């Protein structure tokens, strides 16, 4: 154990001595996209809403005014359902009654260490439910 301390001390001193080397590092060089030596590209940033052709090969500079992706457009034929929210009180439903809560995380069973004993008790609570109803749904029919 006595021989371990000098090794640890040397490691710590060398590590602390190397910190200034990392702090004084210059920023890496960067170049502008249109500097000499940059790859050739076709400028599309000066025209609003222009994207390169899908099947094209090459370097393009596209601007901040992008065309929206066609798959993001909502078609008129797309069904539009509705979202409904409601609350359920655990006292008024048999599905969620009784609610169960625990007093503490649990303790290990002294007779079986693979078993966790959890002290629980009944509790009433209110749960908020959110449901999406498709526009094709007909009231009174099976979904």
Give an overview in words.
The chain is α+β, with helices and mostly antiparallel strands. It is built from one helix and eight strands. It has one helix spanning 4-23; strands spanning 42-43, 60-61, 82-89, 99-102, 107-108, 116-117, 120-123, 126-133. A two-stranded parallel ribbon has the order 1-2. Strands 3-8 form a two-stranded antiparallel sheet. Strands 4-7 form a two-stranded antiparallel sheet. β5 and β6 form a beta hairpin. The model has no long low-confidence stretch (mean pLDDT 81).
How would you summarize the topology of this molecule?
Blueprint: H1 4-23, E1 42-43, E2 60-61, E3 82-89, E4 99-102, E5 107-108, E6 116-117, E7 120-123, E8 126-133
Parallel strand pairs: 1-2
Antiparallel strand pairs: 3-8, 4-7, 5-6
Provide the structure class: alpha+beta
Compute the separation of the termini in Å. Answer: 73 Å
For the report, how would you describe the main beta sheet?
2 strands, parallel
Number of strands: 8
Q: What characteristic shape results from the CA principal axes?
A: flat
Strand order in the sheet with the most strands: 1-2
Q: Any idea what the radius of gyration is?
A: 33 Å
Along the chain, the helix and strand elements come as HEEEEEEEE
Strand content: 15-25%
Q: Which whole number gives the mean pLDDT?
A: 81
Helicity level: 10-25%
Total DSSP helices: 1
The parts where pLDDT drops under 50 for at least 5 residues are none
Which structural traits does this protein have?
143 residues, alpha+beta, two-stranded parallel sheet, two-stranded antiparallel sheet, 22% strand, flat
């Amino acid at each position: 154990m006595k021989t371990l301390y000098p090794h640890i001390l040397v490691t710590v001193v060398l590590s602390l001595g190397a910190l200034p080397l990392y702090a004084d590092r210059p920023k890496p060089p960067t170049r502008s996209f249109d500097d000499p030596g940059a790859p050739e590209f076709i400028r599309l940033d000066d025209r609003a809403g222009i994207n390169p052709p899908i099947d094209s090969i090459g370097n393009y500079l596209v601007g901040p005014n992008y065309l929206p992706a066609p798959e993001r457009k909502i078609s008129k034929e797309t069904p539009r359902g509705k979202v409904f929210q409601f609350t359920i009180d655990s006292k008024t439903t048999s599905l969620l009654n009784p609610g169960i809560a625990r007093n503490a995380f649990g303790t290990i069973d002294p007779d079986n260490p693979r078993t966790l004993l959890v002290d629980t008790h009944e509790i009433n609570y209110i749960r908020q439910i959110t449901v999406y109803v498709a526009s094709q749904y007909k009231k009174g029919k099976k979904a």
